[in-house]
Write a structure and sequence with these properties.
about 25% strand, alpha/beta, globular, about 35% helix, Urease, subunit C, domain 1, TIM Barrel, binds fe (iii) ion, binds N-(iminomethyl)-L-glutamic acid, single chain, eight-stranded parallel beta sheet
Length: about 400
C-alpha cells in the first residue's frame, strides 16, 4: 500500500547553479520502496488522494542523508588523545609516538570480525537515527593485510542488513605504517607493495567498491599512492583519496590523474590542484568536524566554488580527528565554520554525496528513485544547519522501509 508524505518537501537540486527544488506544501508518494510521485500537494493525482492510503504529515521532508566519508568500523576509544589535543599537542606528534591510527590498529588486532561488526552496526543505528540512509565505511585500522580483511569482512556483514543504512565499503589501503614497517625504507616499500597486492583479491571477493590512501606529509607520497590507484582501476574499483589535510604534496593532481571520485579534506591544497580536480570531475569532500577537532583554518571554499568543484560534506567519523557520528553536526559546521550556503550543505550531504559514491539514483527524491527519505521535526531546511546535537528525524526510510522511528516525546 502506498504511503503519502505531505509537508515542505526538498526534492533535490533544481538546476546547475546548485539551488534546491522545494515544494511547499508538497507531497511524496512512496510505493513498493520507490518514489511513485512527487510534486506540489495540490497537484497530487486523485488516485493517490484517496483516504485509504497511509498519510504522514511532517513539517519537512528531504532525501535521506548520505555520509560519503567515514571510518565507522573502528573499535576502542582514543579519548586520551583528545585530551592531549586539548592541551595543545599535535595530531602528527601523537601519531609519531605510536598513538593515532596505530592505536586503533591495536584495537582491531584484539577484536573479532563479530565484535567489529557489532560496533559498526550499533554506530550505523545511531547514524540512521540522525537521518542518514547511506554511509561510506573505510577499513584502514587493520594496516596489515589480514587485519584489513578482518575489518572489511565486518563491514560486509553489516552491509547485508536491511535495517541499517546502506553501506559503501572502501579499502583504505595506505593509512599508516604498522610497527614492523617503520624500521627501514625496504620495510616501508614492502608494506606499500603488500597493500597494493591485496586490491585484486578484495575486488574479487566483492569486499570493497573503492580504494583510498592518505596522501600527505607524514603519511604516504604521490609515488606510493599512484600504483595503488592504478591497481584499483585495473580491478574495476573506484578511487577516493585523503589529500591536503596538513600539507600539499600533490594529492589533488594525483586524484585528477587517477580519475578519483573524490578528494577529501583539502585544507592545504593549491588552486592549481583544485582546478585539476575540477577538470577531471573529482568531487571535493569537506570534513569540518576534523578541521574543528584539529583546530585548523577552513579550506579555501571560495577557490573551490571558483573552480566549479562539486562540494560534498561528510562526517569523517573516526576515533581520532573526528570523534563523532553525526553528519548533521558536520553540516552545521560546514555552514557556520566554512560558510557554505543552505543549498550547498544540503546537496553536499545528499545528492553530491551520492554521486561521489557512484550512486546516481540516490540522494534526491525523483519519480522512480529508491525511497530513501527523512521526515524531520523541523520547520524548514534552514533549520537543518543548526547544531542540534540530538536527533530531529521523526521517520527515516531506506528503500521505503523504516530504519528509524522517533519514540514520541511528550512536549
Ligand atoms: O580522515 N587523516 C587520516 N585519516 C583520518 C584520521 C584517522 C584517525 O586518526 O584515526 C582522517 O582524519
Ligand atoms: Fe578520513
Amino acid at each position: 500500500m502506498p504511503t503519502i508524505f505531505t509537508g515542505r518537501v526538498v526534492a533535490g537540486p533544481r538546476d546547475e547553479r546548485a539551488a534546491l527544488l522545494v515544494f511547499d506544501p508538497g507531497a511524496v508518494v512512496v510505493e513498493a520502496g520507490r518514489v511513485a510521485w512527487i510534486g506540489p500537494r495540490e497537484a497530487l493525482p486523485s488516485t493517490w488522494a484517496r483516504e485509504a492510503f497511509a498519510r504522514i504529515d511532517a513539517p519537512l521532508v528531504t532525501a535521506g542523508l548520505v555520509d560519503a566519508h567515514t571510518h565507522a568500523a573502528w573499535v576502542g576509544s582514543r579519548h586520551e588523545e583528545y585530551v592531549m589535543k586539548l592541551r595543545g599537542e599535535g595530531y602528527e606528534a601523537i601519531a609519531a609516538r605510536g598513538g593515532g591510527i596505530a592505536a586503533s590498529m591495536r584495537a582491531v588486532e584484539q577484536a573479532s570480525v563479530e565484535s567489529i561488526a557489532d560496533a559498526l552496526a550499533a554506530r550505523l543505528a545511531r547514524m540512521a537515527s540522525l537521518g542518514v540512509t547511506t554511509v561510506e565505511v573505510k577499513s584502514g585500522y587493520g594496516l596489515r593485510a589480514a587485519l584489513e580483511r578482518r575489518q572489511l569482512e565486518a563491514i560486509a556483514r553489516v552491509s547485508a542488513r536491511a535495517d541499517r543504512p546502506r553501506v559503501v565499503a572502501t579499502y583504505l589501503a595506505l593509512h599508516a605504517l604498522p610497527p614492523e614497517a617503520r624500521g627501514s625504507d625496504a620495510a616501508r616499500a614492502a608494506h606499500v607493495a603488500a597493500a597494493i597486492a591485496l586490491v585484486a583479491e578484495l575486488a574479487r571477493a566483492g569486499l570493497a567498491s573503492f580504494v583510498d590512501a592518505y596522501v600527505d606529509r607524514n603519511a604516504f607520497s604521490v609515488d606510493e599512492a599512484r600504483p595503488l590507484g592504478d591497481a584499483a582501476r585495473a580491478a574495476g574499483l573506484g578511487v577516493r583519496l585523503h589529500i591536503g589535510q596538513f600539507a600539499d604534496v600533490g594529492g589533488a593532481e594525483l586524484a585528477a590523474a587517477l580519475g578519483a571520485a573524490s578528494g577529501d579534506h583539502l585544507e592545504s591544497t593549491s588552486r592549481a590542484g583544485l582546478d585539476a580536480m575540477a577538470r577531471a570531475n573529482v568531487a571535493a569532500t569537506l570534513l569540518p568536524l576534523a578541521s574543528f577537532v584539529l583546530g585548523q583554518a577552513p579550506p579555501d571554499v571560495a577557490a573551490m566554488r571558483a573552480a566549479g568543484l562539486r562540494l560534498v560534506v561528510a562526517s569523517d567519523a573516526n576515533p581520532g580527528t573526528a570523534p563523532s557520528e553525526s553528519l548533521p553536526l558536520a553540516m552545521a559546521f560546514a555552514a557556520r565554520l566554512y560558510g557554505l550556503s543552505t543549498a550547498e550543505v544540503i546537496l553536499g550531504a545528499t545528492r553530491n554525496a551520492a554521486l561521489a559514491l557512484g550512486l546516481p539514483d540516490r540522494g534526491q527524491l525523483v519519480v522512480g528513485a529508491p525511497a530513501d527519505l527523512v521526515a524531520w521535526d523541523l520547520p524548514h531546511e534552514e533549520a537543518l544547519l543548526q547544531p542540534w546535537g540530538v536527533s530531529r528525524a521523526r521517520l527515516v526510510l531506506r528503500d521505503g522501509a523504516p530504519i528509524h522511528e522517533a519514540s514520541r516525546v511528550d512536549a
